[in-house]
């Protein structure tokens, strides 16, 4: 019934001319767009909960029944999670495009170059990861090609954005006019926040491993995909953008803790660019940066306390403190955007008070959920054992990784059927009696 209604609502429509614009009218627009998105969001929410419960139950069973198989199960569980995330992203993003097309929110000069840019970035990350499995020369070549294509597409997007903003359509489409004073304030705030985030990333990332390797690239792609998929599961939506999600920022926070703040900020910025496609509110160039790449790059600072020795025995406190600092910077970014770009929405209220109340309504609850999930995960010794392999400093990370792998191989060898026979043969050779 639901599928038939969706199909009918999409196929049956008529076109009218309003002025010089042709407008499509669907038989059941609420069914095809808003209702479909809301219904599928809850379907994916329940499916995600069921998947998490099943994977945790099976993981606990494997952990205590056959610990040597835990590593393989973790890889399988991660593959299932990524597959689920890709399904959510493709489905919900398709509905986003359908809704924007129906309501004429699609601005070809901006949207499609952005889609091409994001696609090239994603494909470039995949190509660099594959190349890293062969040789350093292949990795370097793939990195240069992928970086060049991504850079060229980004320049094209910036040019298209400048044309779009220069035409005045960005402000007229939203019924607002940004004054020169507000425009200057937006640029200054954007530059100041970029400087603060970059400075914190380098100060707290001095002990991070340098450069991207195959693992950091693959984990970045996985965490960005998981966060992007979870961002669609948002029971609370704000009228002028923003939402409270089901721990969508948790994967980015964990990635920052594992691989450091510099890589975390980079991953957060990529996630912010994806958010432009998901929930576009484009009024001003600096507002665009404040609400998307700058705001979410701040989440990459969540791992800033990972190397604080005084908190080594309390990783839950490390990730919680980092998440609080990251959320404050994200809030400040949205706050400046609201004051200087969206003040027209609050004509009878002080712009600072309006932006303060509006953004606090969803930013802090959203990060609180993510922090709570991270604290629960970081309370698991098995989870932290894996995380510590990557969160260690550059000098000790390789040692810890090798030691963990050796321990796992020893457990696997000891539990294999041939282990007992090997022990008996060795004992017989040196004349030692074997207990049975």
Radius of gyration: 25 Å
Low-confidence stretches: 1-12, 393-409, 414-436
Mean pLDDT: 78
Helix/strand class: mainly alpha
**Record field, number of beta strands:** 4
Tell me the distance between the termini: 66 Å
What overall form do the CA principal axes indicate?
globular
How many separate structural domains?
3
Order of helices and strands: HEEHHHHHHHEEHHHHHHHH
What profile does the largest beta sheet have?
A: 2 strands, antiparallel
Q: Which fold name fills CATH's third level, the topology of the largest domain?
A: Arp2/3 complex 21 kDa subunit ARPC3
Indicate the proportion of strand residues.
Answer: under 5%
What does this structure look like?
This protein is mainly α and 436 residues long. It is built from 16 helices and four strands. It has a two-stranded antiparallel ribbon. Strands 3-4 form a two-stranded antiparallel ribbon. Helix 1 crosses helix 2, helix 7 (180-203) runs antiparallel to helix 12 and helix 8 (214-230) runs parallel beside helix 10 (261-278). The longest helix has 37 residues, at 29-65.
Topology, element by element:
Layout: H1 2-11, E1 13-18, E2 21-26, H2 29-65, H3 70-102, H4 108-132, H5 136-166, H6 169-173, H7 180-203, H8 214-230, E3 236-237, E4 243-244, H9 250-259, H10 261-278, H11 285-297, H12 315-341, H13 351-378, H14 381-391, H15 394-415, H16 417-429
Antiparallel strand pairs: 1-2, 3-4
Helix pairs in contact: 1-2, 2-3, 3-8, 4-5, 4-8, 7-10, 7-11, 7-12, 8-9, 8-10, 9-10, 9-14, 10-11, 11-12, 12-13, 14-15
């Amino acid at each position: 019934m639901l599928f038939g209604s969706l199909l009918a609502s999409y196929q049956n429509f008529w076109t009218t001319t309003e002025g010089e614009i042709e407008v499509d009218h669907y038989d059941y627009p609420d069914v095809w767009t808003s209702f479909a998105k809301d219904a599928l969001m809850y379907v994916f929410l329940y499916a995600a909960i069921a998947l998490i419960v099943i994977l945790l139950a099976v993981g606990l069973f494997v952990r205590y029944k056959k610990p040597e198989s835990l590593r393989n199960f973790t890889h399988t569980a991660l593959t299932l999670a990524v597959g689920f995330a890709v399904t959510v992203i493709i489905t919900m993003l398709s509905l986003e495009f359908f809704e924007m097309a129906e309501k004429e929110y699609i601005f070809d000069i901006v949207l499609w170059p952005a889609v091409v840019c994001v696609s090239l970035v994603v494909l470039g990350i995949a190509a660099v990861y594959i190349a890293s499995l062969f040789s350093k020369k292949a990795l370097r070549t793939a990195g240069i090609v992928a970086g060049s294509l991504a850079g060229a597409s980004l320049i094209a997007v910036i040019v298209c954005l400048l044309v779009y903003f220069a035409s005045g359509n960005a402000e007229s489409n939203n019924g607002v006019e940004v004054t020169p004073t507000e425009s200057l304030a937006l640029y200054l705030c954007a530059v100041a926040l970029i400087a603060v985030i970059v400075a914190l990333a380098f100060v707290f990332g001095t002990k991070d491993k340098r450069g991207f390797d195959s693992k950091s690239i693959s984990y970045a792609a996985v965490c960005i995909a998981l966060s992007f998929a979870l961002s669609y599961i948002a029971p609370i939506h704000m009228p002028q953008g923003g939402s409270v999600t089901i721990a969508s920022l948790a994967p980015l926070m964990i990635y920052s803790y594992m691989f450091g703040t510099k890589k975390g900020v980079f991953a957060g910025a990529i996630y912010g660019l994806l958010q432009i496609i998901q929930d576009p509110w484009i009024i001003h160039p600096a507002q665009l940066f404040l609400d998307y790449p700058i705001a979410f790059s701040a989440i990459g600072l969540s791992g800033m306390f990972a190397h604080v020795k005084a908190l080594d025995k309390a990783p839950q406190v490390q990730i919680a403190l980092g998440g609080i600092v990251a959320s404050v910077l994200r809030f400040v970014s949205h706050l400046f955007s609201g004051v200087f770009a969206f003040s027209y929405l609050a004509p009878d209220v002080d712009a600072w008070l309006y932006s303060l109340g509006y953004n606090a309504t969803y930013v802090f609850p959203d990060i609180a959920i993510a922090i709570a999930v991270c604290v629960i995960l970081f309370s698991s010794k098995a989870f932290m054992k894996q995380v510590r392999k990557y969160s260690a400093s550059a000098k000790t990370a390789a040692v810890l990784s090798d030691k963990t792998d050796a321990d796992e191989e020893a457990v696997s060898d000891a539990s294999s059927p041939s282990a007992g026979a090997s022990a008996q043969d060795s004992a017989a050779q040196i004349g030692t009696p074997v207990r049975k």
